Model the fold of this input.
Amino acid sequence: MDDLKSMSIESLLDLLATYTTEFTHIRRSGGTKEEYDKCKMLITLLTAEIAIRKQQGGNTAAGISKTD
Done:
């Protein structure tokens, strides 16, 4: 998703928190399969983008930094 590449790390983390909360709610309350799949896919995309940035060391906001 190219839109994620243009977002700040703070925005990515906020979205990850939002969708993780929604995912948890869906699991507890028995949401639809479509809702579950959408949240799961978005969480996967967000965590992948955050991991890429961590590996690149291009953004140290919110405690994400490159470790040597």
